[in-house]
Amino acid sequence: LRFPVMCKPLVACGTVESHQLAVVRREDGLASQRSPLLLQEFVCHSASIVKVYYAGGQTRAQTRPSLPDLARGEAGVAVVEFDSQRPLPGRVEFQLEQPAQPGLFGGTSAQGG
């Protein structure tokens, strides 16, 4: 697993805790996280996410703003914690000074290239 990583509680839904997430950008940030939790490698995605819904035989897709792209090893805070039910943190919260390097899907790469 490579940094940055998403930290998610194992509680899947229905509780306040299930929406308490964190992006840990460096190994030293893991100590502040409570376990048990799920770690997922953060994949840059051009600060957009597509939600797809299917109900009653109909499919709907909606593009929403998401977290900023984060380059591996970039300076800034080690951890950004947030509630996924509230406005998401942006470049200011991550203390990003410049955009990350171009990468997959026209976004940026956490690998820096």
From TrEMBL:
The answer to whether the entry has keyword Magnesium is: yes
Q: Where is the Inositol 1,3,4-trisphosphate 5/6-kinase ATP-grasp domain?
A: 1-83
Pfam families xref list:
Ins134_P3_kin
Look up the record and name the cofactor or cofactors this protein needs.
Mg(2+)
Annotated GO CC locations: cytoplasm
Which Gene Ontology molecular function entries are recorded, alphabetically?
ATP binding; inositol-1,3,4-trisphosphate 5-kinase activity; inositol-1,3,4-trisphosphate 6-kinase activity; inositol-3,4,5,6-tetrakisphosphate 1-kinase activity; magnesium ion binding
Instruction: For this UniProt record, give its keywords in alphabetical order, as a comma-separated list.
Output: ATP-binding, Kinase, Magnesium, Metal-binding, Nucleotide-binding, Transferase
| Record's signal peptide | none
Assigned EC number: 2.7.1.159
Per the record's keyword annotation, is GTP-binding included, yes or no? no
Q: Which GO terms describe its biological process?
A: inositol trisphosphate metabolic process
> Its family?
Belongs to the ITPK1 family.
The protein's name is: inositol-1,3,4-trisphosphate 5/6-kinase
Its taxonomic placement starts with: Eukaryota, Haptista, Haptophyta, Prymnesiophyceae, Prymnesiales
